[in-house]
Amino acid sequence: MTSATVYDLATKDLDPPFAIVDLDAFDANGADLLRRAGGKPIRVVSKSVRCRYLLTRVLARPGFEGLMCYSLAEAVWHVEQGTTDDIVVAYPTADHGALRRLAANDRARAAISIMVDSPEHLDLVDAALGQDHPEIRVCLELDASWRPLPGVHVGTRRSPVFSPRQAADLTRTILSRKGFRLVGMMAYEGQIAGLGDAAGSGVRNSVIGWMQRKSIVEIAKRRAAAVRVVRKLADLEFVNGGGSGSVESTGAEAAVTEVAAGSGLIGPTLFDGYAHFSPRPAAMFALPVVRRPAPKVATLFSGGYIASGPTESSRQPTPYLPEGLSLLGFEGAGEVQTPVSGEAARHLRLGDRVWLRHAKAGELAERFTHYHVVLGDRVDRTVPTYRGESQNFG
């Protein structure tokens, strides 16, 4: 049977729209990430999954250790739910309420490390909790962008701490402040981990590949120097780096003790364009055919699940099964309807399902309250997403 037939059979009693996770594909992607990590532990990036059942499942596998959450409120919630006792919050927080919940919970304070990249982040914590607050674990973020020439910035806009000297200066500031303990360092090289090198034209791919090779060498040298100077001042528990697209290169750095990954578990369309790994599509959603406006066009109900990031076609969902369908350029994926065209549309009838994939890994979970977990030709279980547990972390 084709994948579409298997998914249709497994979900025959469900009314679309709904979302599924192919458990075999999810587990296979986890095994491939472990292979690529070469023995380095993998910290699971929760924003790319946003489903507590799936996060718990992957954390039960040897080689996956701890979560990287995108918000402090999310991290505290996971501690309260007993998901894990090892969490790094990947982005600085300005959430006074979440900081108060952290300070009031001994388990949470022992489990969670918050991100800082300036003395102002420490000031914000003091403002939220008072000068005599309990000790808060902090992680220093080193900017991992590539800056080959003055004024040229390749990568995400994150930390102002770029050089080893700046890292040492901030370390001294943290160590001088009562109520804080520096426990880790992080650097996310988005221009390597989050940018496919086989997603476009040959010229584009060659340029990206060249940039990534240069950037890999540069960040490895600079990160190692920064870790050396910080370790002379503080006893770091971990040095985190990378993402699903750079597991091999980041994991190969001696200075890095763990790598981060999440999207590689799900295999969204933005991760189809990498030359060195090919995750299996593990999450997708089904929409019903509700109109037949032309022989080679079928109109689906709903479907405008546009991914965050730059406004371009790569952020739209992609028709997956049956094969041979594409979105219409004039309409794209709409809030209430999504037309698809192609030879395969001739055979679609009202009520048939079309399976689509989201561009990004975790954002599909914001559209559905539950994932139906498919194992073979059956639904093994139905589990809530964050939204299904009434959790929305912004």
UniProtKB/TrEMBL annotation:
Gene3D superfamilies: Alanine racemase
GO biological process, one term: D-serine catabolic process
Gene Ontology MF annotations: D-serine ammonia-lyase activity
Stretches assigned to the Alanine racemase N-terminal domain: 21-267
A Pfam family per the record: Ala_racemase_N
SUPFAM superfamilies: PLP-binding barrel (SSF51419)
InterPro entries with a match to the protein in the record: Ala_racemase_N, D-amino_acid_metab_enzyme, PLP-binding_barrel
Annotated protein name in UniProt: Alanine racemase
Natural source organism: Amycolatopsis coloradensis
